Amino acid sequence: MTTGPHRPATGPLQAYLFADPAAHSLSPVMHRAAFLHAGLPGEYEARRVPPEDLPAALRGLRVPPACGANLSLPHKEAALALMDGLTPAARAIGAVNTVIRRGEDLIGENTDAPGLLDALAPLTGPDRGQAAVLGAGGAARAAVWALQRDGWAVTVVNRTLARAEALTAELGGTAVAPAEVPWENMALLVNASSAGLSRPDESPVTDEVVARLPAGAAVYDMVYRPAETRLLRQARAAGHRAENGLSMLAAQARLSFLAWTGADVPLHVFLNAAQAALEPHAQGEAP
Ligand code: NAP
Question: For shikimate, which residues are the binding ones (predicted)?
Fold first, then answer.
């Protein structure tokens, strides 16, 4: 799914995050650790790029030593029209989180989708069934696209039903109002909504919903600040396997790094760097 050069890079490399805001991002520590691990001369810089400056920032990526960039809020959708090419994932999801320089061309990729699948693999095992995705924004779009390609039958649940319906009309799956979801059938619950983000006491679902999930269900919360969200506490109290979104963040970073450099750095390098950077910070800090 990820487009990469499939060869080790040789010269010095420069990668970026373009976002607004860009402070507090864990991407620099993850990618710097990856450059070190791979023994590659490279640097990763987080730049605050307001929307009106995105075209100029992207122009700067077209020449060495730039190898690419990550894009975050608010650029993931706006970048689509500024790329020379898009991977199938970026085109279908309608969002670019990774820009890859190929010669002077910029290719838009989405590593959130395969990153989620990599993060889910240890939690779900090989069986597939019904999955509920909470949310209808960019993260939910990536989840719905990825999970369906991975063999899951996806139900999209969002507090604004019309947004869930618009998403499924485009990407597939079934949009269901929260009160109508057959939670007993959901082997997997993925929170791709912002509920719980920086709010340790907020959950996108009630205790009763979590208790209705079948035995052996897996719950994945894309939120990782705070590390222990209310949803994860609810899930563990009900005996379900549960994990926060740090593994997805690390997995998407690993795939971006692979696409830029050709170096397949192990996931734990990204995960350990992100965890170490998070530890001194107070829970509830802004993302
Ligand atoms: P987004 O486009 O702003 O969408 C937010 C979604 O959350 C909307 O569907 C919104 O519902 C819903 N929502 C917001 N507050 C809610 C609440 N209190 N209760 C229930 N639903 C609520 O955001 P996004 O870019 O998709 O990101 C969603 C989350 O995923 C964020 O927490 C983000 O940090 C996380 N994320 C994590 C990773 C990772 O690597 N771990 C990657 C990408 C995103 P309405 O439609 O009704 O407004």
Answer: 25-27, 72, 97, 112, 224, 252
